[in-house]
Automatic annotation (TrEMBL):
Name assigned to this protein: Transport permease protein
Tree of life domain: Bacteria
Family recorded in the similarity comment: Belongs to the ABC-2 integral membrane protein family.
Keywords annotated in UniProt: Cell membrane, Membrane, Transmembrane, Transmembrane helix, Transport
Keyword Amino-acid biosynthesis among UniProt keywords: no
Species, as recorded: Chitinophaga qingshengii
Subcellular location: Cell membrane; Membrane
Domain ABC transmembrane type-2: 28-254
PANTHER family: NODULATION PROTEIN J
Pfam families to which the protein is assigned, alphabetical: ABC2_membrane
Membrane-spanning parts: 27-50, 62-84, 105-133, 139-161, 173-191, 229-251
Coiled coil: none
Topology within the bilayer: Multi-pass membrane protein
Length: 255
């Protein structure tokens, strides 16, 4: 037991490297997580942006926070799929029979999500800069943005882990992607909520994505974040804790 505790972080590092290698060899994952959000950003800015009034001179400035969240949401389905694949192949059982920390294999997938999403988001921001995005935010603001994005990634990763560990079919594992994609689309990510019908606006303003988008947008342009940052943090922390507890229960029940 002492050996397992002592080598938890080295074990987790090995699992992280294993999972990252799988991601780097998956062209489909790279296209969906990075290329598709960029294509969506190009479409909205250069095709639809002229017809959307957001109160900003450059629509890419308004759009970018939502695109970053879309990219993270795209990755959630792959987290679930990779976990499902390991479960079906008996990978976790093999690792659990070895003298390594039991949860290291699961945390390897979680950390892979953080690392791979961070790289994807950097690429998307670089493309946005080429499209005219400019931010007066300082280092502290960008560190706050990175923290919120990391927390959002953790939230979606732990949510995705639940069906990944418990699904009976690959379709069941991937079903989590649909509601996750739904939330950014009905939020302030693409248009201000005050342009929406009353019922849609009520939903958009009282779901997790809108306060997260508004907080990131305010930090990017040195605007007051107000209560939005606390609402965003409350959503992320509460859902992450719930999803983590539920996912670990499912994981531990596997023996």
């Amino acid at each position: 037991m002492q050996t397992v505790k002592t080598y938890f972080f080295p074990d987790m590092g090995v699992m992280l490297g294993r999972s990252l290698r799988h991601v780097s060899r998956s062209l489909d994952t790279i296209i969906t997580v990075t290329i598709m959000p960029i294509a969506m950003m190009l479409l909205f800015v250069y095709v639809l942006g002229g017809a959307i009034h957001t109160g900003t001179d450059h629509y890419v400035d308004y759009l970018l926070p939502g695109i970053l969240l879309i990219a993270i949401a795209n990755s959630a389905g792959y987290v679930s799929y990779r976990l499902f694949t390991d479960v079906q192949r008996g990978i976790f059982e093999r690792f659990n029979s070895m003298p390594i920390a039991r949860s290291a294999a699961l945390w390897g997938h979680v950390l892979t999500s953080l690392v791979s999403n961070a790289m994807s988001l950097v690429v998307i921001i670089l493309v946005a800069l080429l499209m005219g995005f400019r931010s007066p935010a300082g280092v502290l603001n960008w560190l706050a943005i990175a923290g919120i994005l990391a927390l959002f990634t953790m939230m979606l990763t732990w949510i995705a882990a639940i069906p990944g560990l418990s699904a009976k079919t690959v379709d069941g594992a991937g079903v989590i992607a649909y509601p996750i994609h739904f939330l950014p689309l009905i939020s302030s990510a693409f248009v201000p909520t005050d342009t929406m019908p009353a019922a849609v606006r009520a939903f958009a303003e009282h779901q997790p994505v809108t306060p997260i988008v508004e907080t990131i947008r305010a930090l990017m342009f040195n605007q007051p974040v107000g209560k939005e940052i606390w609402v965003a943090m409350a959503w992320c922390v509460a859902i992450t804790i719930w999803a983590y507890i539920f996912a670990m229960r499912v994981y531990n029940k596997r023996g």
